[in-house]
TrEMBL record:
Gene3D superfamilies: 3.40.50.2020, HAD superfamily/HAD-like
Keyword DNA repair on entry: no
Family: Belongs to the ComF/GntX family.
CDD domains, sorted: PRTases_typeI
Keywords: Hydrolase
Ranges annotated as spanning the membrane: none
Highest taxon above the source species: Bacteria
Pfam families xrefs: HAD_2 (PF13419)
Protein name: HAD-IA family hydrolase
Matches recorded under InterPro entries: ComF/GntX_DNA_util-trans, HAD-like_sf, HAD-SF_hydro_IA, HAD_2, HAD_sf, PRTase-like, PRTase_dom
Keyword set includes Nucleotide-binding: no
NCBIfam families on file: HAD-SF-IA-v1
GO molecular function: hydrolase activity
Length: 411
C-alpha cells in the first residue's frame, strides 16, 4: 500500500481556473489581487479533493505539495483552504521544473524517502504524469482537471481516477490500474471508472490499457504491449486478450447489440480478432452478437503506418464498406491499437451511413507518447511541451520561461 502522497496544487486540489490566464502570463500582481476567485472542487465520493491531504495525514501517511507556482502563492492557497502538508516544493526550490523530475525528487529528499512505485504523484496534466515517471513514482491523473481526455490518454497515467475518495482506499490502489494491463500482468484488479482508459468523446473511444512502442523504455516491462504485438502474428495471446475485452464490456453502463472488429486487409487471410472474440464472448451478455464480417476492406493502402494524421485521413477515405443494414443497432467497434483514430473514424462513418444507431470504439491499447527528456540548447534547463493558445500547436519551451530563458523549438 502507498504511504507517500505527493500532490500538484492547481486544478488538482483546488479549482484555480479563473486565474489560469493570469498565471500562464506570469501576471502575479493581478493573481494576488484575485485570490478570492479560487474555489474548492465539489466533493466526489466522501471527500472533496482539497480534503484529501488532511484525511491521509490523519491516517498516518506522508503528504507533500509539489507545484510550479511560486511559494507565496502556494502558501496562501494552502492556508486559504486549510490544506496541511509535510513538505512544500514550489517553483523557486529547483532549477528544473515539471516534467523534469527535480521537484518531486526534492520533495522526497526533504521527506527522507527513496523513490518507489509505492509512492504516488497526483496531478491533472501530462507534465505531472511524465515527471512522476522520470522520478520513479506511480502517477495518478484526476479527471476533474481541464486537460482533454485525448491528451491525457496519449500520455496516460498509471491510474486514472474520477473521484477523490478513490485515493482513500489505500488497500485497493494497487489494483486500480487498467483492466488490460492488470489481467495480462496477473496483477490484482479492482474495477472503477478508470479501469478502462477513456480516450475520446466523438465518437466515444475506450482502451484497455497503454501501448508502448519499442523505442519507449516502458515497452520492455509491458505484457499488454507484448500481447498486442503477438496478436498480429498468432493467437497465443487471444484468450487472455479476449478475457480483457469481455470483462471490459461487462463493466460498461452501455450495452451494445453487436461487436464488429476493424476489418483485415484484402491480402490478409487470418482474422486476428476471431479467436479473441470467441474468448471474449464467454465473459459478456450472450445477447451481444459478434459479427466478424460486419465490415470489409475494399481498398489496400500502402505505407499507412508512415503517414501523418492528415495523410491517413485522406488515404483511408472509402477504404471500408458493409453488406449490412444496421437498423439502429448499437455497435462496438474493436481495434487493436488506437493511434490517430483515422481508421476507426472512417469505420464509424460507414456504419452510421448504413443505419447504425450509435457506434463506440474499443481498442485493446492506446498508443502512448514516448517520454523523452529534452534539454534547452540555450541554457541547459529541461524543456517542456507547451501549447500556443491561439493556434493550439505544440512546441518545446524552456522550463526557465519567462524569467530565465525564452528559447523554443519545434515539437
Amino acid at each position: 500500500m502507498p504511504n507517500v502522497f505527493l500532490f500538484d496544487l492547481d486544478m488538482t486540489l483546488v479549482d484555480s481556473s479563473a486565474l489560469a490566464h493570469l498565471r500562464r502570463s506570469q501576471m502575479w500582481n493581478a493573481v494576488r489581487q484575485n485570490m478570492n476567485l479560487i474555489r474548492a472542487f465539489p466533493a466526489q465520493g466522501r471527500a472533496a479533493p482539497h480534503e484529501l491531504p488532511a484525511l491521509l495525514r490523519a491516517d498516518g501517511q506522508a503528504v507533500g505539495i509539489v507545484t510550479s507556482s511560486p511559494e507565496w502563492y502556494a502558501t496562501a492557497v494552502l492556508q486559504q483552504f486549510r490544506i496541511p502538508y509535510d513538505v512544500l516544493v514550489s517553483y523557486g526550490d529547483t532549477e528544473n521544473h515539471k516534467p523534469d523530475p527535480a521537484p518531486i525528487e526534492e520533495a522526497l529528499r526533504r521527506l527522507g524517502i527513496a523513490a518507489s512505485r509505492e509512492s504516488l504523484y497526483i496531478g491533472d496534466d501530462v507534465g505531472d504524469v511524465e515527471a512522476a515517471y522520470h522520478a520513479g513514482l506511480a502517477s495518478v491523473a484526476v479527471r476533474w482537471g481541464p486537460t482533454s481526455i485525448f491528451e491525457l490518454s496519449s500520455s496516460a497515467p498509471d491510474i486514472f481516477m474520477s473521484k477523490a475518495s478513490t485515493l482513500l482506499r489505500r488497500d485497493r490502489i494497487g489494483g486500480r490500474g487498467y483492466i488490460g494491463e492488470a489481467l495480462t500482468s496477473k496483477w490484482p484488479f479492482h474495477s472503477h471508472w478508470g479501469s478502462i482508459l477513456h480516450c475520446d468523446d466523438e465518437p466515444v473511444v475506450y482502451a484497455l490499457g497503454r501501448y508502448f512502442t519499442a523505442s519507449d523504455p516502458r515497452h520492455a516491462t509491458s505484457p499488454l504491449s507484448a500481447a498486442v504485438l503477438s496478436l498480429k502474428n498468432n493467437d497465443s495471446q487471444a484468450q487472455i486478450l479476449g478475457e480483457c475485452v469481455g470483462r471490459a464490456v461487462a463493466l460498461f453502463d452501455w450495452n451494445p447489440d453487436c461487436i464488429i472488429p476493424v476489418p483485415m486487409k484484402p491480402s490478409q487471410e487470418r482474422n486476428r480478432f476471431k479467436e479473441l472474440l470467441e474468448s471474449a464472448s464467454d465473459h459478456f451478455d450472450e445477447d451481444i452478437e459478434v459479427e466478424l464480417s460486419g465490415l470489409k476492406t475494399v481498398k489496400e493502402i500502402d505505407g499507412y503506418k508512415q503517414m501523418n494524421a492528415l495523410q491517413r485521413a485522406e488515404a483511408i477515405k472509402d477504404a471500408f464498406d458493409t453488406d449490412y443494414t444496421w437498423s439502429g443497432a448499437k455497435i462496438l467497434l474493436l481495434d487493436d491499437v488506437y493511434t490517430t483514430g483515422e481508421t476507426t473514424r472512417e469505420c464509424v462513418r460507414i456504419l452510421n451511413a448504413n443505419g447504425a444507431g450509435e457506434v463506440r470504439v474499443m481498442a485493446i491499447a492506446k498508443d502512448q507518447r514516448v517520454f523523452s527528456r529534452k534539454t534547452c540548447s540555450a541554457c541547459g534547463r529541461s524543456m517542456k511541451i507547451r501549447e500556443n493558445h491561439t493556434t493550439h500547436e505544440k512546441f518545446w519551451g524552456c522550463s526557465g520561461y519567462p524569467d530565465h530563458c525564452r528559447h523554443t523549438e519545434d515539437f
